[in-house]
Write a structure and sequence with these properties.
This is SDR family oxidoreductase. The chain has 251 residues and is of the alpha/beta class. The protein has helices at 7-18, 30-42, 57-71, 99-125, 148-169, 195-198, 201-211, 218-229, and strands spanning 22-27, 46-51, 76-79, 130-137, 173-180, 240-243. The protein has 8 helices and 6 strands.
């Protein structure tokens, strides 16, 4: 479970452990990650922490190699994190971005998933089975002002998963994605936004809430991920499920 040190990632780790998985909690913050692993253990589950920077391809490969060495196999990958890190770029209008911004968005919202998916899939192929769930933003499915590259990178990641469903299915590996919008109990990260957007941050947030038919919490995302990770979804691959409280209804 990557990006598992807080909020959505933590909720996913807790839910997978509750359903019987041995969870490897991963992230950059060792103290926060160990706290999640300890929380799982205190509830009677099995967990450990392993540090990794998802934007570092070598570190991600070392993470997966370590899991296989210690446990003999990797059955499920829930790929979250990086895109919602506290040091990630927030919403920017396209004309306010630099070339460096372009690369940062792509790295955090797409490549961070691609690196770990490739490493995990290589490990899963040895056993001819595996479940991969990529977590991203609904901006990858719905045009959203201020998210041209957040949405563009995530849209690319989701299309990648659809193609990989065809390629990896031959090796018994299923891959799906879960998309989200505003999460009621996750801290919004607004830092570094374009001035025209930053001045309306609270208004943007309130508009999102008004348009949602139902509130969405971290636990709702966790349950969707657990569904894709479990046997109930064995007949499903290459799909993206939006858990957005009715904010939008992408096809």
């Amino acid at each position: 479970m990557t990006g598992a040190t807080a909020y959505i990632g933590r909720a996913i780790a807790l839910e997978l452990a509750r359903r019987g998985a041995h969870v490897v909690v991963s992230g950059r913050n060792a103290a926060a990650g160990q706290a999640v692993a300890d929380e799982i253990a205190a509830a009677g589950g099995r967990a450990e922490f392993a540090a990794a920077d998802l934007t570092d391809r070598a570190a991600v490969q070392a993470l997966v190699d370590g899991i296989v060495q210690r446990h003999g196999r990797l059955d499920v990958l829930a790929a979250s994190g990086a895109g919602a890190s506290s040091d990630s770029l927030a919403f920017k209008l396209f004309m306010d971005m630099s070339g460096e911004d372009f690369e940062t968005y792509i790295r955090s919202h797409w490549l961070a998933r691609a690196h770990v998916i490739q490493a995990a899939a290589a490990a899963m192929r040895a056993n001819k089975r595996g479940k991969i769930v990529a977590i991203g933003t609904d901006a990858g499915r719905v045009a959203t002002v201020g998210e041209s590259f957040i949405g563009g990178a995530t849209g690319g990641m989701m299309q990648m998963c659809r193609v990989l469903a065809r390629e990896l299915g031959r090796d018994g590996i299923r891959i799906n994605a879960v998309a989200m919008s505003y999460i009621a109990d996750a801290e919004p990260r607004w830092g570094g936004a374009s001035p025209a957007l930053a001045s309306h941050e609270r208004g943007m947030l309130q508009q999102l809430k008004k348009r949602m038919l139902f509130p969405v919490h971290c636990a709702d995302i966790a349950q969707a991920v657990a569904f894709f990770a479990g046997p109930e979804s064995d007949a499903i691959t290459g799909q993206t499920l939006s858990v957005n409280g009715g904010l939008s209804t992408p096809g």
